[in-house]
């Protein structure tokens, strides 16, 4: 039986395709994405990941069981630890820590992270992890797709290391675990009466991911 994640993704099929097949993603896959677009994305992703860690912190407080609290705490600590990796990745693209600290948040970053945090604040743990899931699981799907493209692993593609990171075992396992957690929590707390609201949260978060790519492409503030 397919779980809640598959059902949500199926019901948001058009928005999901617009997210995982966005022009920004295509540009990463064939190496044609303008570097300035990627740099803008990296800076905003730094700000995004900080808010994402905050959303998992909220998850610790919303989680129904000790095991779920530990999962959310682990995800939060994981991101906080990976921030130093992200800072190094940015340094490799010529963005120093001071530039990251000073960067003004773009509206698409604020819209997305505010939406997820507010979904969690208003709702319960299931609402929160539904709003988080397009982000965590979507990047795993994108990584796998891009790694299979002709230039996805090509050393001449400047974005090959980024693709390898998300196509890699560690991120794939993390995304599979997030998906399993959503299915598990769904099996306990989903009722048909609340499904439409969850589907709306999922579809909105998916659209906000696509807007995040578009922000990178447009270098929008
Ligand atoms: C806009 C945006 N969406 C998704 C990711 C993917 N991602 C990378 S690390 C991480 C936390 C893992 O729990 C997530 C979700 C991203 N970086 N930026």
Automatic annotation (TrEMBL):
One of its GO terms (biological process) is thiamine diphosphate biosynthetic process. InterPro entries: Haem_Oase-like_multi-hlx, Thiaminase-2/PQQC, Thiaminase_II, Thiamine_Salvage_TenA. It comes from the Bacteria. It holds the Pfam family TENA_THI-4. Keywords: Hydrolase, Thiamine biosynthesis. Residues 13-218 form the Thiaminase-2/PQQC domain. The keyword Hydrolase applies. One of its GO terms (cellular component) is cytosol. SUPFAM superfamilies: Heme oxygenase-like. The keyword Hydrolase applies. Its EC number is 3.5.99.2. GO terms for molecular function: thiaminase activity. It catalyses: thiamine + H2O = 5-(2-hydroxyethyl)-4-methylthiazole + 4-amino-5-hydroxymethyl-2-methylpyrimidine + H(+); 4-amino-5-aminomethyl-2-methylpyrimidine + H2O = 4-amino-5-hydroxymethyl-2-methylpyrimidine + NH4(+). CDD domains: TenA_C_ScTHI20-like. Pathway: Cofactor biosynthesis; thiamine diphosphate biosynthesis. It is an enzyme of class 3 (hydrolase). Catalyzes an amino-pyrimidine hydrolysis reaction at the C5' of the pyrimidine moiety of thiamine compounds, a reaction that is part of a thiamine salvage pathway. Belongs to the TenA family. This is Aminopyrimidine aminohydrolase. It comes from Prosthecomicrobium pneumaticum.
